[in-house]
Amino acid sequence: MHHRIPVLGLGVVSALLLTGCFGPANQPATDSAAGSGRIKLAMLQPPRSSLSPLSDDAFKLSRWSTAETLVNLDKEGDAQPRLATAWKRTSDKTWEFTLRKGVMFHDGSELTAEVAANSLTRATKASPKPRILDGVELTAKAKGGKLVVTTGESDPLVPHRLSSPQLSILSTGAYRKNGKVDPVGTGSGPFELVKVDGTTTATLDRYDGYWDEKAKAAGIDVSFVPDGAARAAAIRSGEAHIAEAVPVSQASLLEENTITEVPMPRTNTLYLNTESGPFKDAGLRSAVREAVDADELVKGVYEGRADVAKGLLGPALPWAAEGRTELKDRTKAKAPEGTTITLATFTDRAELPEVASVLQQQLKDAGFKVKQVVREYAHIEEDALSGKFDAFILSRATVLDSGDPVAYLYSDFACDGSFNIAQLCDENIDKAVNKAALAPAGDKRRALILDAEAAILKTDAAIPMLHERVIQGDATSVTGSAKDPRERLLITSDTEVK
């Protein structure tokens, strides 16, 4: 599966444009909150696909608690009930789900197995497909009041897949004859989406017919603010109660009690080309590993707002650190002796060019001669994937929509992986990754994932440097906002402004 790295900057919006975006009275959020009970939210990216749940916009619907999935994931990544209360595997390729009784959609219709099957079937027929279904053949049918999900091949992660926001269950009224999906008034969460103003604002009201705990806030007023400085300014000025994805460069300008750093399942990794060039030599790859000073990168480039990597999987997956053992019998480093290498990265993530500059100096100090190539991601991806560079710095999501890292390990490090920047092909790695892929969810699968990680790290084809954090801004008047590493949750029933 080929997953493009999302571009973080969609445009520059002046902080002045925020004035008036967060409430009809044009008052600072901290002043108006007591009267309205509404939450004013500044979000990073505007909708790209008219808030279709079959696109990446699904994560907005999830973060606003307006669209719900059959299954949730807990902090450990284990599947938990949501719209489905229970499930069982009835055969190698078939799963049966029991749906929650008494769930009403915002348009007044009721959740049934037929409705759930309709949502999943629409997802399987979408073009493009939701990425959680890449390479997956899935059918959903109602049978005897149950939802029956069948896959083309044995898949132990079906419940985890159904936790993806891109497989949210909406009422049948959401699905238009022209193939479009309209989430306005068709979700089932504690907040009802009532209005969307293009790529500028969205409005949600508390849904009093919600099947679970009612929302404490009266509603959510969303503004899409791509410029990071403007989002941070909105927290400082009181124009917003919550701002997502505050840039590292802006975090120091905010009061410490208004920011929260959340570990992300994202690793800043140095990929080395094992197929051609100097890094065919394992000894030179080992020399790079020894030359990299991740502490310097974390302190200097990220201002301490990142975590030094101990492996490919970081603190957003607590079980990884708990189960990881120290690698032994590492390849002995070979003296670079002036070996010339090309180090590349992209500009779309603001810190990466600076990481490249620091890394260039570290490698020079170790004895390499280093040439740098830095371009926009769209103009460098093809060259990176075809092995044009000796080394490539990538900020990479390590768990995709299932909350499981096997897909990432396969795409980046298996012989036929579609995102194999390191041009790596190792029989031991393929065996380890495939073994993990077939294991059922739980402790055994996690142990096998760590075995695969160890096999990859032993090659020094990928040198994990640091794990990024996402910085969230919350006004001091806000309580109960979610701090979610997977960025599926933000405002919940418990979120309110006091």
List strands and helices in order, with pairings.
Blueprint: H1 29-36, E1 38-43, H2 58-63, E2 71-73, E3 79-81, E4 84-91, E5 94-99, H3 113-125, E6 138-143, E7 146-151, H4 158-161, E8 191-197, E9 201-206, E10 219-224, H5 228-237, E11 242-243, H6 248-251, E12 259-272, H7 282-291, H8 294-300, E13 306-308, H9 318-323, E14 340-346, H10 352-366, E15 369-375, H11 381-385, E16 391-397, H12 406-413, H13 427-438, H14 443-459, E17 462-474, E18 478-479, E19 496-497
Parallel strand pairs: 1-10, 1-11, 14-15, 14-16
Antiparallel strand pairs: 2-3, 4-5, 5-7, 6-7, 8-9, 9-10, 11-17, 12-16, 12-17, 13-17, 18-19
Helix pairs in contact: 12-13, 13-14
What does this structure look like?
The chain is α+β, with helices and mostly antiparallel strands. 25% of the residues lie in helices and 23% in strands. Strands 1, 8, 9, 10, 11, 12, 13, 14, 15, 16 and 17 form an 11-stranded mixed beta sheet that branches.
Main features:
498 residues; disordered N terminus; 25% helix; alpha+beta; four-stranded antiparallel β-sheet
Structure classification: alpha+beta
Tell me which oligomeric state these chains represent.
single chain
Radius of gyration: 23 Å
List the total number of helices: 14
Q: What ranges have pLDDT less than 50 throughout 5 or more consecutive residues?
A: 1-35
Mean pLDDT: 90
The proportion of residues in beta strands is: 15-25%
Q: How many strands? A: 19
Helical content band: 25-40%
Query: Quick one: biggest sheet?
Result: 11 strands, mixed
Backbone shape: globular
Distance between the termini: 45 Å
